[in-house]
Design goal:
393 residues; alpha+beta; SH3 type barrels; 6-stranded antiparallel beta barrel; 3-stranded antiparallel beta sheet; 14 helices; 35% helix; 21% strand
Length: 393
């Protein structure tokens, strides 16, 4: 059973540092009433639902047969339920996992056990937090109401919990909640009823592949255009046709490319922009990136010439074998243009997408880690060859 719940307390926005209300996406086991998987995001979207479903399957150690869920837009998105099978040739995530979906009737909260769970969660957990803001006008704290100058004067919180800290608090509350008697079996606790379930071995790598969504794209000269940028692989060179791509919202640095008949072609990497004056104004990373791009162009050029020589053995192809000139343009100083400072809402909606690992490393070193996953990734990156080559030499 799945649903989204708008948290009734303020948390720290990981991108702006400003207080905001987040959304908890939860998957509840109907028999034991245990929350088996959840995710906390700034809004209810398909990415947070996918992450919550993944956590639920791993904790449940099984793939559910039926998911009874909300009737909202996020749950009925194309990412999960795709009915246009003829065009794409693939099924939705639930179908690939063998899960049947049942949507709740609108305005029928009594039919959703998870609504009662969220009600108890609000009363026994959310109201205890100092940043509690209320779920409606009627139950708002006094310091959030108009003309309550006395309460506003003395309520000045200097700290808002991060999403990572909220997850730690929720986990502790769930330990308390699961130690209570199960509503469906008064003789056992929720944890005991939940433990008495069928289990299978879950391969997380295979699970991630099953949760990848797909789309039909066309190969252009610069590669496959997707989400406002290009993805390219040498194996796409010379192809101009429609292909099927599979991608994961957890990692947009690469996409997997298949034929329309579902035959694997290659893995295309996200194309990064090269510094136009890398040798003069760029750092060592810009110079190395430019060298790799020039070498790739030369490889493709030599490959084209060899293929032409096979087709036209008696034709002189020297006119093609011309070296790429590296023209040095005159540097003209341009006055800096004043840019408009983005609003907190614009900063919130523009979550950083890293094209390279060193970009993510430098961003984390500057802004700090916002989750435990970031700290684990940072520790692993410091042990990598790339880190030692860029920062220790």
């Amino acid at each position: 059973m799945a649903d989204g719940h708008k948290l009734s307390f303020l948390v720290q926005n990981p991108f702006t540092g400003k207080p905001t209300r987040a959304t908890l996406i939860g998957f509840l086991d109907w028999k034991s009433t245990a929350l088996v998987g959840y995710e906390i995001m700034l809004e209810e979207n398909t990415q947070s639902i996918a992450s919550a479903l993944r956590n639920a399957i791993i904790n449940l150690q099984n793939i559910p047969k039926i998911v009874y869920q909300d009737n909202g837009r996020a749950f009925k998105a194309k990412y999960f339920i795709n009915t246009d099978f003829k065009e794409t040739g693939f099924e939705g995530i639930y179908a690939r996992l063998g899960i049947k979906t049942v949507f709740a009737r609108p305005y029928n909260a009594r039919a959703k056990v998870i609504e009662r769970f969220f009600k108890e969660f609000q009363e026994s957990f959310e109201k205890l937090l100092p940043t509690y803001s209320g779920s409606s006008i009627e139950n708002k704290p006094a310091h959030f109401k108009r003309n309550e100058k006395f309460h506003k004067k003395y309520f000045k919180p200097n700290y808002y919990p991060t999403i990572d800290e909220v997850k730690m608090l929720v986990d502790k509350w769930l330990e308390f909640k699961n130690a209570q008697p199960c509503p469906n079996d008064k003789n056992h606790t929720i944890a005991e009823v939940f433990e008495n379930r069928a289990k299978i071995k879950i391969d997380t790598a295979q699970l991630d592949d099953l949760m990848m969504t797909a789309d039909i794209k066309t190969i252009y000269q610069n590669g496959i255009r997707f989400l406002g940028t290009f993805y390219y692989s040498d194996k796409l060179y010379g192809l101009k046709t429609q292909v099927m791509i599979r991608y994961s919202l957890f990692d947009l640095s690469e996409i997997k490319v298949y034929t329309v008949k579902n035959q694997f072609l290659c893995t295309a990497k996200r194309v990064t922009k090269a510094h136009p004056m890398a040798y003069h104004l760029g750092d060592i990373k810009d110079v190395e990136d430019l060298k790799q791009k020039i070498q790739k162009q030369k490889r493709l050029k030599n490959k084209t010439i060899k293929e032409l020589q096979k087709l036209l053995p008696n034709v002189d192809l020297k006119f093609i074998e011309q070296d790429i000139e590296e023209d040095v343009q005159e540097v003209i100083e341009v006055k800096p243009v004043k840019t408009k400072k983005p609003t907190p809402r614009e900063e919130q909606m523009s979550a950083p997408v890293f094209l390279n690992k060193y970009e993510k490393f430098e961003w984390l070193m500057k802004n700090g880690c916002t989750s435990a996953d970031d700290r684990i990734w940072l520790a692993e990156y410091k042990q990598s060859e790339e880190y030692r080559g860029l920062y220790e030499t």
